[in-house]
């Protein structure tokens, strides 16, 4: 039996508020496929709700059982769950999304929403330097800002990486095509 509209809304609220017991109960009753299909009126998935609110415990439960494609689903504003986690400064959640085996990985960092911002851009806009630095490290940028394809220690989970003492300067393109420079780490 499929969940009713009310049951679907309750599930989204359980994800939003981090009620792991209710999330587990919904999965037991209706299955993972039903949970993965649920969207609110703005196209938000259960992952949008829990990632935007920093519920790493619920994410730990759902990530291994939902389709990995759910990590890159966009809402009506074209934002992914990673955009929401970055906007709200949830580093643990950001790391779990990017590092999830079998998921899109660092490709999630490049997805732009309708405002033309990537999750890195959202972190920078929110003034969240720690998250922006981590996202830059995951992108494997060198000091000149060039992507080093295939370089870096792939066995490192990103926990202990550090920026060069002089920092990293990157450019972010906004929705209008204008370039903005951003310096992460080091002295201004």
From TrEMBL:
Q: Which SUPFAM superfamilies match?
A: Ankyrin repeat
The ANK repeat units are at 42-63
- Keywords for the protein's UniProt record, in alphabetical order: ANK repeat, Repeat
In alphabetical order, the GO MF annotations are: ubiquitin-protein transferase activity
What SMART domains does UniProt report for this protein, alphabetically? ANK (SM00248)
PROSITE patterns noted in UniProt: ANK_REP_REGION (PS50297), ANK_REPEAT (PS50088)
Q: Which GO terms describe its biological process?
A: protein K6-linked ubiquitination
One short Pfam name that applies is Ank_2
| Protein name, UniProt field | Ankyrin repeat-containing domain protein
């Amino acid at each position: 039996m499929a969940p009713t509209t009310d049951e679907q809304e309750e599930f989204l609220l359980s994800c939003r508020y981090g009620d792991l017991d209710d999330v587990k109960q919904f999965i037991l009753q209706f299955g993972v496929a039903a949970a993965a299909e649920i969207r609110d009126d703005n196209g938000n998935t259960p992952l949008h709700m829990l990632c935007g609110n920093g519920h790493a415990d619920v994410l730990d439960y759902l990530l291994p059982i939902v389709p990995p494609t759910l990590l890159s689903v966009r809402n009506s504003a074209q934002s992914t769950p990673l955009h929401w986690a970055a906007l709200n400064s949830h580093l643990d959640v950001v790391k779990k999304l990017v590092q999830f085996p079998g998921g899109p990985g660092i490709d999630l960092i490049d997805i732009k929403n309708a405002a033309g911002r990537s999750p890195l851009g959202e972190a920078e806009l929110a003034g969240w330097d720690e998250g922006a630095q981590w996202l830059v490290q995951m992108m494997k940028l060198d000091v000149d800002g060039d992507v080093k394809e295939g370089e870096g220690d792939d066995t490192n989970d990103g926990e202990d990486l550090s920026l060069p003492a002089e920092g990293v300067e990157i450019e972010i393109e906004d929705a209008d095509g204008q370039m903005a420079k951003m310096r992460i780490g080091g002295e201004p």
